User: Which sequence fits this backbone?
């Protein structure tokens, strides 16, 4: 599929005519429209496109996407290992090392047909089967970036000097499933995001317009808060990313301690998962980066052919029940894996 032309889709816009690719965040302060993908581990890919126009996500095209067979997914952490990881995080909390940590696992499955492995085609299926406010696709096969996201979570929005972040913490099938633990966890992460933004915003400008609002998404509900601030004079995207990355909601609190703990517990890099994905319009001083959750990416170069990957995780606190947290990671993945495998229509009536 390397013959597919580079493109990006976000927010009803289609970007084509690739002009420039760089890993330098300073480029985001220059000019033009950029698609941005940042791996959790920090690899940054910024792609400037020459042609940007309104274009709705196309209807799914027959034969453009052949997803993995439903039973072929493997997980970087199996159930027993994940449950043990939750126990180890609770032990670290008991020792006072962290308050909260987001334990994730990466799922992988072979793609049966390299000629039907187009992330734009997958994005079209996701748009129908799991619509999301920050959905998008970045297709840069020559640069090793092929991402289709159905992210519900705003990492950073910039409108001139005004910054907004919308951390999600707390997930259930229905509002009744949300526990006191979910509210406590959300407030903890809001403090962390306020702290991150405070490092880069004008003194006294950081506020929390909404705390623990319930948002409904396909098949589940989330608690979402809104944190806002005004970017300090002289600061731009390079400083903003340095101060806030990786996103607080998918790391833990305190962030540095959580990252050290997770490096010990997670056997594989997260890659695009839990990083950032979105667009930046340098001419207008605007941009919107999502936290790359509910996100698929394609890895090529494997001997057996292309591999589809997807990440899922849960925020662990002292109040966490290990088995419940494992089930939350399953709940977050089930609907999307069904969409990607092409089995979603048949199972719409069942609880996924």
Assistant:
């Amino acid at each position: 599929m390397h013959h597919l032309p580079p493109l990006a889709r976000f927010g009803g816009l289609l970007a084509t005519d690739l002009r420039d690719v760089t890993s330098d965040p300073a480029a985001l302060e220059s000019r033009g429209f950029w698609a941005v993908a940042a791996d959790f581990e920090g690899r940054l890919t910024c792609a400037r496109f020459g042609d940007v126009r309104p274009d709705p996500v196309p209807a799914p095209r027959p034969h453009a996407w052949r997803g993995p067979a439903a039973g072929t997914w493997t997980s970087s952490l199996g159930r027993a290992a994940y449950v043990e990881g939750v126990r180890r995080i609770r032990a670290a909390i008991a020792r006072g090392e962290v308050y909260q940590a987001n334990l994730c696992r990466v799922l992988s499955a072979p793609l049966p047909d390299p000629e039907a492995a187009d992330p734009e085609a997958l994005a079209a299926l996701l748009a129908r089967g799991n619509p999301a406010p920050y959905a998008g696709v970045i297709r840069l096969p020559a640069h090793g970036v092929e991402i289709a996201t159905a992210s519900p979570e705003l990492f950073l929005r910039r409108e001139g000097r005004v910054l907004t972040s919308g951390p999600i913490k707390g997930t259930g099938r229905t509002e009744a499933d949300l526990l006191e633990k979910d509210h406590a966890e959300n407030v903890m992460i809001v403090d962390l995001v306020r702290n991150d933004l405070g490092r880069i915003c004008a003194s006294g400008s950081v506020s929390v317009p909404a705390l623990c609002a319930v948002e409904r998404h396909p098949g589940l509900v989330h608690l979402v808060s809104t944190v806002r601030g005004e970017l300090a004079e002289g600061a731009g995207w390079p400083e903003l990313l340095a101060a806030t990355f990786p996103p607080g909601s998918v790391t833990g609190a305190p962030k540095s301690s959580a990252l050290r703990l997770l490096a010990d517990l997670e056997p594989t890099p997260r890659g695009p998962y839990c990083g950032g994905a979105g667009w930046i319009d340098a001419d207008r001083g605007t941009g919107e980066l999502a936290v790359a959750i509910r996100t698929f990416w394609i890895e090529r170069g494997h001997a057996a052919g292309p591999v589809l990957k997807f990440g899922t995780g849960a925020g662990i606190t002292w109040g966490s029940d290990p088995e419940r947290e494992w089930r939350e990671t399953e709940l977050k993945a089930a609907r999307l894996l069904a969409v990607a495998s092409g089995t979603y229509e048949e199972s719409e009536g069942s609880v996924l």
Remarks:
- The domain at 7-344 is CATH 3.60.120.10 (Anthranilate synthase).
